[in-house]
Specification:
OB fold (Dihydrolipoamide Acetyltransferase, E2P), 2 domains, three-stranded antiparallel β-sheet, 11 strands, about 25% helix, elongated, disordered N terminus
Amino acid sequence: MCGVSNVPEPAYKVRIKEIYEGEFEEISVNHVRYFRFPWGSVSKARVMGIVISSWISDDGSFARLEIHDGTGSIQLKAWEEDVSRLFDPETGYLFEIGTILDVIGRIRSWRDTVYLYPMIVEKVSDPNLILLRELEILRRMLRFRFPPSAKKEDYPIDKTIIKLLKEVGPLSPEEISDLLGWELNDILDKLDGLRELGLIYKEGSKYVYRLKIG
């Protein structure tokens, strides 16, 4: 039987920065406008960030929150009956500044300003979930750049490690091994070699790419 599937589409976890780097598709599907990222098009996005500002109109018909995830900030905007989605169930008021939120919403734009129309907003009590979300996104990014079928010969370990440290930032050998899916001993050997060449240095338990100046 032909027809449109009723299976709900997943909301893909992204960094706020990625939203500003993407663009809207030219056409809509079932009255939903899709948003294109380098790795694919989505109808909904999921972001986690800290509330940095809030506002509600005098008549309560419009409200907005602005959240920041370390890569950028974006506003959540809601109208009429959906305004309550921006309320903290515990207080009955807008989520307070400093609150961590996990948001599923549709990416929209008005007068060249991109924002999220919230569908689900949940308060996050454990700050460690921010790091977990970042690791989940990193794995998705790495799967896009380095497919699971890729062989080490196709992506030399030393060059791949340097690229990873440049784009992601400081990482431990265990994190590099986990993200790339390569043997820890191989990673450690290459890290030692790159360190001797002066291309990276160690800071605590993590390795850092040494920026070239001049």
